[in-house]
Amino acid sequence: MSNxxxxxxxxxxxxxxxVRLQRQGGDIPKGLTISFNKFxxxxxxxxxxxxxxxxxxxxxxxxxxKIIGEHVHSSATGRNVFNDLKLAYKLxxxxxxxxxxxxxxxxxxxFSSVR
Length: 115
Prior knowledge:
Strands 1-2 form a two-stranded antiparallel sheet. It is globular. By secondary structure, it is mainly alpha-helical. The longest helix is centred in the N-terminal third of the chain and has 22 residues, at 3-24. 59% of the residues lie in helices and 5% in strands. The chain has helices at 3-24, 36-45, 59-72, 75-91, 103-107; strands at 47-49, 111-113. It is built from five helices and two strands. It has one domain (3-113). Helix 3 (59-72) runs antiparallel to helix 4.
């Protein structure tokens, strides 16, 4: 995982989604989301939540990753951001509202490895 791409994916799942939910009047999860270090560790280890419902990456995040690739960094970085987002969803690190899990949600989760 590219550290730059991982940071961009993490930012989209924390800051951007927090703003999106506020604008939509959605419920903002209580508690701190998992740290970047924990996020990147789970992505690297491919640790999946047993109870997660695998969902696909929403279109607005796909567009955001593409914009990052086209206008901020390289197209390879944009692809890596998208791949990290896709993996975060596949591993169940994102809740039903599109927010990264909180520390307490993660603390009570059971994990398995994904290949």
